[in-house]
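Researcher: Quick sanity check before group meeting.
Model: Go ahead. Protein one:
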Amino acid sequence: MLIDISLTILGIFLQCVTSSQIFEDFTLIITNKVLIGKLKEQKTVNATVPGPLINVTLGHTIRLTVINNLYDTHTVVHLHGMTQFGTPFSDGVPFVSQCLISNSPGNNSFTYLFTPEKAGTYWYHAHHRM
């Protein structure tokens, strides 16, 4: 039921987007990988630890697509310090503002859509459950 509600809210927000907005698109692929020099598998973002730097322009709308290729867990991405006025479903707090992103093929992605309110340096991280 929560997934249906989140998708409905997202659909309503997407219909409100105007053509005058400038979009910046990013993709984060979360996967398990053994990195060079490491003995065990790690969860990586775009095959790196830490994940890639995301530079955005203030006032642009961000479309951040997260693809969950983890074979052993569901996940979400939380953007620390990023206010989510009008887009609470893009906060990435599992079971509070968002359902987990499944690791099932065909149902393993979520697109966060938000516009930064302030310039600054922020960080993101994943929440996951085994």
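Researcher: Fine. The other one?
Model: Protein two, sequence then structure:
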Amino acid sequence: LGASSICSQLCRQRQTYPGWGLDGRSLHAKGTGVPASRWCITRCDLRLLRREIQAATLQGRIVPTELDRFDTTDSKVGPSMYTVVDQYIKPLTADAGCMSWALLRHPRGLPCGFFITHCW
């Protein structure tokens, strides 16, 4: 990539992910960071994540595995969340500063209306 292309990509990342470049350990620090009750995303964020997953799949950055043989051309049923986390979320958030995807999107956190549990 050329210098202007890299600069454009960094600007887009910072607009899409306002937490980009912040210290994830500080953001998640118990007592001094953003309280876990505010590690939230919006419906709009879920839509963005879906678009990002679709784009990453089309670009070959998310690929089927032995455990997840999803069809890369199926826009309704895509990769499992395990695949998304391993191939998209973890690399993205590591490059951004090691914070959760929620704090990457909202580094000050958001009030939560309800909670859906998860595990990786």
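Researcher: One line on it for the slide.
Model: The mean pLDDT is 89.
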